[in-house]
Automatic annotation (TrEMBL), chain A:
TM helices/strands, residue ranges: 38-56, 68-87
Protein name as it appears in the record: Uncharacterized protein
Keywords from the named record: Membrane, Transmembrane, Transmembrane helix
Organism: Candidatus Gottesmanbacteria bacterium RBG_16_52_11
Keyword Membrane: yes
High-level lineage: Bacteria, Candidatus Gottesmaniibacteriota
TrEMBL record, chain B:
Chain segments annotated as transmembrane: 6-26, 38-61, 73-97, 156-175
UniProt KW keywords: Membrane, Transmembrane, Transmembrane helix
Organism: Candidatus Gottesmanbacteria bacterium RBG_16_52_11
Protein name: Uncharacterized protein
Length: 167, 196
């Protein structure tokens, strides 16, 4: 039980420390640093969770695997959630709803004027190239081996859900 | 019986059930109400989770002396916390990216084109700003966030998972002093939570 409590409290402490430390230069650090921060935090937290579980063994049975799993999945979720803001993305759907609430009502042209002309596709292609999932050739854009595997996995799941094409 | 391992196995099993239910629910009437379908699947999976928990507890209590009494009775709660976190992780990574990520759509398009590749101009044409925004307007209208009258779209003033998600995104950006959504914080910001 102490391992579970420790993992929850340690995760909250990690969040507070991360926001305080990274806030001043958050605009320049990128998602890679956030992943690295939480990877280190996971290792430190795992040690603390196991140690605390053993320390209080006489009072309450330790659950080290559960404690580590709770911290690990919480950290993984947080990092996944962080990807979009740290990549500088705004969810188009969220922007549309915020715009509608700000203006009271809007047309398709109002929505279109809110987004720069080429940025939607260009930025995503640049991100895919930098992650090594696609590459630029003389004929056009080609998926790398990793990119093909990832595309196949997501494509299969998308077909299972019976969804259309455009995101 | 090791309670520690049992909690993890059950959390993962319940999460797998949630993903299966999600696939089923999404292919039905909630296709455009993505967050609502997720919550419906999570609700059904939670019921499954507690039914399995009750069965596991009954089995453990009937199978002899129970060494770790406290975790045994806390078992359904702790395994639910882990189950929720596993679901949240999977939804954020696998499901979220599959359904809404334009990056993944573009990657799939390029991979499907094979070795000759695909010209950037063709992608820009297919995923033009207009096309992407029209799809989102339809999705938001069908999920009940907007109402379409003639050529105009009006917001629906209510509380929803989507607005909560948007508020959390705005708050996250503000906490880290990131630029996203900053222009809407004063005018809309906290009103998202009140539904007004």
């Amino acid at each position: 039980m102490i391992s579970v409590l420790a993992s929850i409290l340690l995760f909250i402490a990690t969040l507070v420390i991360h926001i305080m430390v990274r806030r001043p230069n958050a605009r320049s650090i990128g998602i890679g640093k956030v992943v690295a921060d939480f990877a280190v935090a996971c290792i430190l937290a795992a040690v603390a969770i196991v140690a605390l579980g053993e320390w209080f063994r006489d009072i309450t049975p330790p659950l080290p695997l559960t404690g580590i799993a709770i911290y690990g999945f919480a950290a993984f979720s947080y990092v996944s959630f962080s990807a979009s803001p740290f990549l500088g993305d705004e969810s188009p759907s969220s922007v549309i709803v915020l715009l509608a609430r700000e203006k009271g009502s809007m047309t398709l042209d109002d929505v279109l004027s809110e987004f720069p002309d080429r940025s939607i596709v260009d930025k995503r292609i640049a991100d895919l190239i930098s992650t090594g999932w696609i590459k630029r050739t003389r004929k056009g854009l080609v998926a790398t081996g990793t990119g093909r595997i990832i595309a196949a996995a997501f494509g299969t799941y998308r077909r299972l859900l019976g969804l259309g094409e455009t995101g | 019986m090791n309670i520690d391992r049992l909690i993890i196995i059950q959390a993962i099993t319940s999460s797998a059930a949630m993903m299966a239910l999600q696939t089923f629910v999404m292919s039905g009437k909630y296709k455009q109400a993505i967050l609502r379908s997720l919550m419906a699947a999570f609700g059904y999976a939670t019921i499954c989770h507690y039914l399995i928990s009750a069965a596991v507890l009954a089995y453990l209590l009937n199978s002899g002396p129970v060494p770790d009494l406290l975790p045994l009775y806390a078992y359904p709660v702790i395994s639910f916390i882990l189950f929720g976190l596993v679901c949240f992780s999977v939804v954020l990574t696998v499901f979220g990216l599959t359904v809404t990520s334009l990056r993944i759509h573009i990657l799939t398009e390029i991979a499907d084109a094979g070795e000759p590749g695909i010209a950037e101009t063709a992608l820009e044409k297919k995923y033009s700003k207009r096309e992407v925004m029209v799809v989102r307007l339809i999705r938001l209208t069908e999920s009940g966030e907007l109402v379409n009258r003639g050529r105009r779209y009006f917001p629906v003033y209510h509380r929803s998972y989507f607005l909560l998600h948007t508020f959390i995104l705005m708050l996250y950006n503000r906490l880290y002093n990131l630029p996203g959504y900053a222009r809407y914080w004063k005018s809309v910001g906290a009103k998202l939570l009140t539904g007004k």
